[in-house]
Design goal:
Largest sheet of chain A: 5 strands, mixed
Distance between the termini of chain A: 30 Å
Strand order of the largest sheet of chain A: 3-23-22-19-18
Largest sheet of chain B: none
Number of strands of chain B: 0
Number of domains of chain B: 2
Oligomer: heterodimer
Helix content of chain A: 25-40%
Number of helices of chain B: 15
Strand content of chain A: 15-25%
Helix content of chain B: over 70%
Shape of chain B: globular
Order of helices and strands of chain B: HHHHHHHHHHHHHHH
Number of helices of chain A: 15
Strand content of chain B: under 5%
Number of domains of chain A: 3
Number of strands of chain A: 23
Largest interface: A-B, 21 and 26 residues
Radius of gyration of chain A: 22 Å
Radius of gyration of chain B: 19 Å
Structural class of chain B: mainly alpha
Chain lengths: ~475, ~300
């Protein structure tokens, strides 16, 4: 991997890449003040529509916008097709892995994945052992984080198989771009994404318990104070399903009901946006106010489908990530179409020694962390931070993995000084039901601070519209 | 529909209506205060207004004495006072946010924009008249977007129940402010109190309506008849209870027949009653009794359909 970042718009010779030419001609023809006006318009629209997220740790009710950048991230059709094939392959393998782990555990017996890595992991849910789920699908909705390295190749940075979020921004960003710059869509054959909620609903209905002909689907949210509440409400509305909180549901004789103004109504499929730990106070955390007592028992009895299934965290844990290419070979008999980022597993002595010797060059991640909090970016770290992580790694090497610092590709982005390159990643959403479907594109996140590689919205990242060109 | 959803819709519309009603009361009060008055009279009027809203004790506990500027701020901009206009609009918006997937996006955007604007409002520089006009205008807008965009289903019916139960309560309270002991509900052109009765008409947006209906001088009896008995006046008690009854019937479930019956019984009094009979025990007593009925209906609706208050 080279350290010079790949520029999504400009090739090394300074010329624009072919799929960006029409856009950049248009951009050059735009008066500066028009773009500034459009950016302000986007901000005020997002505020008015209330497309905001709550920030953890700030005073209750604090709502912020995720900054939206008006320069789209464009992918040409051939590149997208290859990427999509790789994503489908990966998610099929991950679902096969989950079915295997919770049934016969062949992959553990074959020695490809060390059994203690799985069975001693807090993300492994013994409650799921031996339970058959409809269609054998565990991760109905997967958000796979993709980065492009200096040589222009895509890599999977991380799999999100629990409750991946962000898809509402993919949809709202497109709506916003079409509202601000309709003329661009006349010039570019941009593949539509608006049908995502239809595909999702269709998938959720297809995994209803056996024998249910007209399944009732509900979206389970932790409530209006959750950081992703906007997305929960948005998806429920777009799919025309009820947005429920734990208090709206109850279980009687292993069936789940919601309390309505006309009495109880049976629920067949729950699209949950609550972590496993909070789903059922009788089975998991007893202090959870968000869940539904008895839900696990109804689930185990096959009377309700939960999407994503309980226990998918075992497949997206960072300690399991290094084994995904082997899963693809083991279950599908294929070579991975998209590579992992090379990863040092610090429970291996050699990898640990290398990491400790090269800490300032590496990115170190905690294996159960999420959201960019428990992470060290070597090149950007202070001596104190390096020392801190060195001590933590030495004490518990099994809790960490390390990767080379990737030169994430850059895309031109509007910042205070004007147009400048900023690092980006991509999260496509892979839906599994009767078949595996991907809406073209995904959510492009951008690190707005110069040089920053952290794209998480909780850490000052923004988003862009993502265009897959059909021709 | 989820009981919790119905609860949010019901309260969303109650808070919205309450905000508007407060603006109407303050508007009446403000216009009245523009007449030449001694400070004593001004203080007495504020005491009456705070009292009819049931917040006099809360105000006095906070400030100790009646001072017009403070009283206005308390009712309009005080974020710590749960029934100020700013609090009403915040509560309406929070309830709407909880069901933003059930209401139309136009409704949500309207309520959210109202909240964003009032949050940015500089109370110190506010022109009282302009501010109250703005509150009413935003309320008209919310109502319009509700009527213009919402599917006529259960969700709509619960917003209607909330709106009209709250409005019934507000109209009764505004009438109560005029129902001082000894007030004569007769057909004498309203003599010394002429201005006050006219003001009541204006603050309930019914002055032109009155002229159209009666083509005659303003008398206490006619004003009372207009706001109590006429089914075609949008803010009258009869109209409000009619709407509550009709919408309750539409959402009725296994638990609700008794609530429906009570609403129907109350409605029948306005539909078939005579003003003289209704007021036989005194105007004030009639209104107090009516407020007791709306309170009890509200409680029963929560028990039958919504998230019961525990």
């Amino acid at each position: 991997m080279t350290s010079v970042p790949y520029d999504e718009m400009q090739a090394a010779d300074g010329k624009n890449r072919p799929h960006y030419r029409r856009y950049s001609d248009w951009l050059l023809s735009q008066p500066e003040d028009r773009l500034a006006r459009k950016r302000a318009e986007a901000d005020s629209l997002f505020h008015r529509v209330g497309i905001t997220f709550a920030v953890y740790g700030e005073r209750e009710g604090a709502e912020r916008l995720i900054p939206f950048d008006i320069v789209p991230r464009i992918l040409p059709a051939p590149e997208w097709d290859q990427l999509a094939a790789g994503l489908r392959q990966r998610v099929r393998a991950l679902n096969a892995f989950l079915a295997d782990v919770y049934h016969d555990q062949e992959i553990l017996r074959s020695g490809r994945v060390p059994p203690e890595q799985i069975l001693c992991n807090a993300q492994y849910r013994p409650e799921m052992q031996g339970i058959d789920v409809p269609g054998g699908i565990y991760a109905h909705i997967a958000g796979i984080d993709i980065v492009r390295a200096g040589d222009g190749r895509f890599h999977v940075l991380e799999d999100n198989l629990r409750v991946p979020s962000g898809v509402s921004y993919m949809l709202e960003n497109r709506k916003m771009m079409m509202r601000l710059f309709p003329e661009l869509f006349a010039r570019h054959p941009v593949a539509p994404v608006e049908h995502y909620p239809d595909v999702l609903l269709d998938n959720l209905r297809s995994v209803a318990p056996v024998g249910v002909s007209d399944p009732v689907v509900a979206l389970l949210t932790p409530g209006a104070h959750n950081s992703a509440y906007f997305e929960h409400a948005f998806l429920a509305q777009q799919m025309g399903i009820e947005l429920v909180e734990g208090q709206d549901l109850y279980v009687r004789e292993d069936a789940v009901y919601m309390r309505t103004t006309r009495g109880p109504v049976r629920v067949d499929v729950i699209y949950r946006r609550i972590d496993d730990d909070f789903l059922d106070p009788l089975a998991f955390r007893p202090d959870s106010m968000l869940g539904v007592p008895g839900l696990l028992s109804a689930y185990r009895a096959g009377r309700v489908t939960i999407a994503n299934a309980i226990g998918t965290g075992i497949a997206d844990d960072k300690s399991v990530y290094p084994y995904v290419p082997d899963m693809i070979r083991f279950y599908l008999g294929e070579e991975p179409l998209i590579d992992n980022v090379p990863t040092y597993v610090l429970r291996r002595p050699d990898d640990l020694a290398y990491t400790l010797a090269h800490l300032p060059e590496l990115v170190v991640k905690e294996v159960h962390g999420a959201g960019g909090y428990g992470m060290l970016i070597g090149p950007a770290a202070t001596q104190a931070q390096l020392d801190d992580f060195r001590a933590r790694i030495t004490a518990h090497p099994e809790r960490y993995i390390a990767q080379p610092t990737l030169a994430l590709s850059t895309c031109p982005t509007f910042v205070e000084s004007g147009l400048a390159p900023r690092h980006i990643d991509l999260r496509p959403y892979v839906l599994s039901g009767r078949e595996v479907t991907i809406v073209p594109g995904g959510l492009t996140r951008v690190a707005l601070r110069k040089g920053s590689l952290v794209v998480n919205s909780s850490q000052g990242g923004g988003t862009k519209d993502t265009w897959v060109l059909e021709t | 529909m989820l009981s919790r959803t119905a609860d949010h819709l019901y309260w969303m519309s109650r808070w919205l209506e309450r905000g508007e009603s407060l603006a109407r009361m303050l508007d009446a009060h403000y216009r009245h205060s523009l007449l030449p008055h001694t400070p004593d009279v001004l203080a007495r009027d504020w005491t009456a207004t705070l009292g009819s809203l049931g917040v006099l004790d809360g105000y006095l506990a906070r400030y100790g004495e009646i001072e017009p500027g403070r009283a206005f701020n308390y009712l309009a901009f005080d974020r710590d006072h749960g029934s100020s206009i700013v609090s009403c609009l915040r509560e309406a918006r929070e309830n709407a946010r909880a069901v933003r997937g059930t209401i139309t996006s136009e409704m949500w955007e309207t309520l959210n924009a109202t909240w964003l604007e009032i949050r940015a409002y500089d109370a110190r520089r506010a022109d009282v008249g302009d501010f109250l006009e703005w509150v009413k205008y935003r309320s008209h807008l919310s109502r319009g977007v509700t009527l213009g965009t919402m599917l006529r289903d259960e969700a709509f019916q619960f917003t209607r129940i909330g709106t009209f139960l709250e409005r019934a309560d507000a109209t009764a309270r505004m009438l109560l402010a005029r129902a001082k002991p000894g007030v004569e509900i007769n057909d004498d052109p309203a003599g010394t109190d002429h201005y006050a009765w006219t003001l009541l008409l204006r603050s309930l947006s019914a002055f032109e309506v009155y002229r159209k209906v009666y083509r005659d001088a303003v008398t206490p009896r006619r004003v009372t008849e207009l706001f109590v008995l006429r089914d075609d006046v949008p803010r009258s008690l009869h109209r409000c209870i009619n709407e509550v009854y009709v919408n309750l019937r539409a959402v009725g479930n296994d638990q609700s027949p008794e609530t429906e019956r009570r609403a129907g019984e109350l409605h029948a009094r306005f539909r078939f009653g005579r003003l003289e009979d209704l007021l036989a025990r005194g105007y004030g007593a009639f209104l107090d009794d009516f407020l007791g009925h709306t309170r009890s209906l509200g409680h029963r609706i929560s028990q039958d359909f919504l998230v019961p208050v525990t």
